[in-house]
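Exercise 7.
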Amino acid sequence: MTKALIFGIDGQDGSYLAELLLGKEYQVFGWIPSHIPVSKENIAHLENALSLVDGDLSDQESLLQCIQQIQPDEIYNLAAPSFPAGSWDSTVYVGDIAGLGTARILEAMRQVVPGARFYQASSSEIFGAPAEVPQSEATPFHPRNPYGIAKLYAHWITVRYRDYYNLFTVSGILYNHESPRRGTQFVTRKISKKAAEIKLGLTKELHLGDLDACRDWGYAGDYVEAMWLMLQAPKADTYVIGTGVVHSVRQFCDLAFGCLDMDYRDYIVQDSLLMRPPEQAQLVANAGKARQELGWKPKVSFEELVRKMVLSDYHALQGQDASCS
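Solution. The predicted structure, written as tokens, is:
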């Protein structure tokens, strides 16, 4: 039985990946941080099927012990502070965990299980202000925040461990991917949850910034399949993963409120405090290499994604309402 170790299993991607691997009859081990409080809500339904371990990505010895104990065949590093805009508030911490934490995992893998396969969760944030649209694996990197800079270090150390030590290490440059398990600090989940709250009479309005800001949004469940496919490939490489199509916040709002038979224009308040500087170039994925070499393509449409998120929040809040009444 193949053994997989998922760093950051408690997050959106980690939970979907765990479901995928369990469905393929993997033995799944999940790593969670020991030094900060962690919600296990995303993996509560999997708890009996998983083996959980905890540790510290800033502690090399704990990582060595973890990998020595488990002896994984596949390692997925999804553990990192994942809110780019907030990374300016914790620059050193983000650099240590998202950047150096990756190097520590790779070093532990090199020493203990050099034959294992390693996936690094990279990010479109490493392109930052992109030199071209759309972006491919050949597009120059230009990160603009501490999160993107840390992720770029993690990307390059993954590539160099592959080249220097001949390890099977891959880097997936993933664009925005959402789901009902997305954190509420992200605009997509903020919209889906507020739309549900408004429909249920729990609140009256939603404050947002630039409604015309655009993103390449996909479904997290599709993207974790791409992670798995990368580790099944005959050779290790880097892949861009995204839909190649952008939608605006306004479009997301229109669909989200429309799912509940409401007009978003009746409830949205544009807040100047939430406005960001205009983006000079859009982050849009060119995932042609992944389509050709991995046979990967997104399955869930933008419209289906929005509907999944809104209805999940609506039914969850409706259940809470019923339990309180």
